[in-house]
Amino acid sequence: MSIIDIVSPRLYNLKAIRRDLHAHPELAFAEHRTADVVARHLTSLGLEVHRGLGGTGVVGVVRGGRGLRAIGLRADMDALPITERNTFAHRSTVEACMHACGHDGHTTMLLGAAEVLAARPDFDGTVYLIFQPAEEGEGGARAMIEDGLFDRFPMESVFGMHNWPGMAAGSFAVHAGPVMASADRFDITVRGHGAHAAMPHLGTDPVTAAAALVQAVQTIVSRNLDPVVSAVVSITQFHAGEAYNAIPDRAELAGTVRAFSEQVQEAVEARLRTLCEGTAAAFGVEVEFEYRRGYPPTVNTAAEAALCADAARAVAGEGAVTTAAPPSMGAEDFAFFLQKKPGAYIWIGNGPGEGGCTLHNPHYDFNDDILPAGIGYWVELVRRLLPAR
């Protein structure tokens, strides 16, 4: 009997769980109801359950055979501060909060895998099911690590999966190396001297200086980095002034840096600092620069990525798995796990991203039709990593 055949009888209840989670989204570190749903379901399967890691995180334990090896499978649980624009019956019931990234589906796929593994523990070792809070910008993976995740649940490798709109439903993309970028933030304050707009010579204009700095920042990627190296530097905020007839005394800029390596992060940060210093000297203003490291790049280890690709092919077929997809400049805090353990983070196709059904869009919805493929992938991966003796 194939994995899909094993999963199929469970789909009705799993879809109900997924849609219930979608209707009751919770933001980062507030996933109390979601954690309750997860813990109850794991307990109903007779599994060992641990709560409270990283605040609202849940870890379920599935054991098979007598093997001492262990791996971790991770799903994220949090939603986004977005007002849902869908009108279907399971739309969000929470104002300005929705599952616009499919974490409801990720949680459900891992719960489905828990059902199959608990019912058929035909593997040798331990599987830790990691239900993580606060992926969306708040670093829930780091919080779980700091709370002792890898000390309390020693695992040799860890794996993650994210749905990907625009890829054929149930297909897979596996990267050997970088899959998602870093996400750093910076703030720049340009201080001048205010003046009447009709008498600019009596002041020092921070707006002019800040505008020149915005232009200069765009040269970092095009003129300071190797052309074959990927990076994105974006100014996303520019705030200055309150009146039509007054030159303000300050301007504020903010933005993000995306890269696939720490070396590029360091190079961009250094160049930003140099440009700020140069702008201050050229325009006679004061420039304050603050750079904050966020999520690191998500980089798969090659051996684990190859195992993931084989597991995906066993479920979806050779033609439905690619290892040549370009990585994304989006960020993912699964990167913190991969800094500590070997492993891989893969994409599962969610179907066409049409009609606004793209990530972080108010019309997004997870595609329930890919639940069998996602669950099947998790189960097949466990069987390959922890083969029964």
TrEMBL record:
The keyword rRNA-binding does not apply. Its cofactor is Mn(2+). It holds the Pfam family M20_dimer. It is an enzyme of class 3 (hydrolase). The Mn(2+) ion enhances activity. The keyword Translocase does not apply. PANTHER family: METALLOPEPTIDASE, PUTATIVE (AFU_ORTHOLOGUE AFUA_6G09600)-RELATED (PTHR11014:SF63), PEPTIDASE M20 FAMILY MEMBER (PTHR11014). This is Probable hippurate hydrolase. It comes from Azoarcus sp. (strain BH72). The lineage of its organism: Bacteria, Pseudomonadati, Pseudomonadota, Betaproteobacteria, Rhodocyclales.
